[in-house]
Amino acid sequence: MNDKHRVRVSKFISKHLRHAPAEIGLTLEPGGWVGVDTLLAAAGAHGFLISRAELEEVVAKCDKQRCAFDETGTRIRANQGHSVEVDLELDPAVPPELLYHGTALRTLPLILDGGLLKMARHHVHLSRDFETALKVGGRHGKPVVLSVAAGKMAGDGFTFFVSSNGVWLVDRVPPTYLSVIPTDSATT
């Protein structure tokens, strides 16, 4: 499969597992799961034919690991990033002392004033490393990376989760736990 087609399939899958399952007749099971055969049939019924092999390739080659199969390979879900109501059934986890969040420079004043908010998603997404956060921040303009005092937050009673692809999740991050990292001098 060429890169262009793989991206098209990835975007279609992400859209319907994260934001619009009902648009193609899917109902997410507990944990956000949907049967692979159900997904493939629904996609085909809506004019987007995907083979099982193509789906497996998209999941395996996605650098962000947005989706995952269950241990049986019969179900698939988006790892995080949902805007539809879903309980991913993740267990609380103890975060490292520092996590990172990448954003666009234009959003920095709002974030420093009100903190990181989940907005239309279920959680704020945090990265374990600076480089990932920088890449995420660069998707929407000049990137800025924020350091999140996750260890202190956990000690103060905030609950963290970690998805199967290593993205850390939390309901919100108040501004007192944030520090701006100069992108030209940061290291991990």
Automatic annotation (TrEMBL):
GO terms for biological process: tRNA splicing, via endonucleolytic cleavage and ligation. Its EC number is 2.7.1.-. The keyword Ribosomal protein does not apply. It holds the Pfam family PTS_2-RNA. The keyword Aminoacyl-tRNA synthetase does not apply. Keywords: NAD, Transferase. One of its GO terms (molecular function) is NAD+ poly-ADP-ribosyltransferase activity. Removes the 2'-phosphate from RNA via an intermediate in which the phosphate is ADP-ribosylated by NAD followed by a presumed transesterification to release the RNA and generate ADP-ribose 1''-2''-cyclic phosphate (APPR>P). May function as an ADP-ribosylase. Belongs to the KptA/TPT1 family. This is Probable RNA 2'-phosphotransferase. It comes from Fimbriiglobus ruber. The gene is kptA.
